[in-house]
Amino acid sequence: MGIIAILMVLVAPAFTTIKSGTDVTSAAYTIKGALDTARTYAKANNTYTWVGFYEENVSNPSSPNSDTPAIGRLVMSIVASKDGTSVYDPNSLATIAPTKLIQVGKLTKIENVHLWTHTDAPSGIGSTLDTRPNVASTYCIGNSSPSNSATPFQYPVGNPAPAQQYTFVKAVQFSPGGEARINNNSNPLQRTAEIGVRATHGTTVDMVSPNLVAIQLGGVAADVIIYRK
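-> structure tokens emitted (229 positions)
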């Protein structure tokens, strides 16, 4: 019974509510924490990990939900390959079987936040939001990018396969060496990838407040940097 209780603590959802635009920084650090956890686990256990990103309608207290617009509640899940391989066939990409994965840590939910594909053109010459490296949308996790992964995974995972609650079609993959790619190995290693975040008021995206954040991670070193106004 004690072991079961511990496992339940590990997979119980963690909730973070953004109370104001200024709290969007807290969301960014929560995302950074998930990325750091996944990379550390991949390297320590010589395996592949994935951080999945899913957004749903925050006005509906039930989660998961399929209400539109799918805005305002960000759900993140970290999973790892059981056998140390990338699990999927690189020549025939397909959904990753939940029986081949294990859950790493808690399912995380952040409310009043929206994934954002940047439309600005940062100069790439400095250390602020406006001067950060300019990342092609192909390598940005946001509301309109990247293309859905050909290797999505579900939550929860396990063997036997549990009933699917969430399907993650946007992800960051970490290799056993700690290299980061968007979705899977079909995407080339990039110098930088980005996850953009804006605050919301319910399902209304705050387009007025300057409180927007870009979380960038290096492809090789996978160092995570947070840029904000």
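Helices lie at 2-11, 24-45.
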